[in-house]
Amino acid sequence: MDNCIINDTMHNKIDDKNKKILKQMEISGFFFVSLAAFVLHFLYEWSGNEFWTTLFSAVNESVWEHLKIFTLPYLFWAFFEICVVKIPFKKFVSAKILSLYFLLLSIPIFYYTYTGVFGKNVAVIDILSGFILTALTFAISFKMITNAPCIEKYYKLSVILLILYIIMIEFFTYTPPEIGLFKDPVSGSVGL
């Protein structure tokens, strides 16, 4: 048997009490992220286009900016979770970041697939898909934390991917490439 699986079973087992707490936290996290994403979607506009809001809110209707409004609340909630639930740190961090990447990949894939089929985006579908994909992200996170043996071996890679993504999310808000991911479908512009 693989040493990683043996060590995972012996040292990284999450007891039933912490699994129950984690499950409650993941469900609460879904609601928190959904509400926060809604607020962050409009915060830049509500603030009168204040520059400080560009760090964490959507500055336009591009797919890229919609990734940002889900990412930062998700990371904030993850930090809160690790302070509340007793979970092996590297296992938790790896699972949360890898599940975040599911969200970051699934949003554009779903968006470009359905808009390719219909020829346009539909606000109701955009909103519902955001909720559904966020719920799936939390479900994946829970499953990886509680059932994925040796997930912590991806700790370094997941941290590097997260740092790279955070740098990109801030950099591309101000200097986005001229490609569809960054293009506002309403105004046709990119960036601020």
Could you outline the blueprint of secondary structure elements for this entry?
Blueprint: H1 3-11, H2 16-46, H3 63-84, H4 89-118, H5 123-147, H6 155-174
Helix pairs in contact: 2-3, 2-5, 3-4, 4-5, 4-6
Characterise this structure.
There is one protein chain. The chain has 192 residues and is mainly alpha-helical. The protein has one domain (15-176). Helices cover 71% and strands 0% of the residues. It is built from 6 helices and no strands. The chain has helices at 3-11, 16-46, 63-84, 89-118, 123-147, 155-174. Helix 4 (89-118) crosses helix 6 (155-174). The protein is globular and about 50 Å long. The model is unreliable at 5-10 (pLDDT under 50).
How far is it from the N-terminal to the C-terminal residue, by CA?
Answer: 54 Å
The percentage helix is: over 70%
| Topology order in helix (H) and strand (E) letters | HHHHHH
Low-confidence stretches: 5-10
The Rg value, from CA coordinates, equals 18 Å
State the major sheet. Answer: none
Count of the domains? 1
Helix/strand/pairing category:
mainly alpha
Enumerate how many helices there are, as a single number: 6
Tell the overall outline: globular
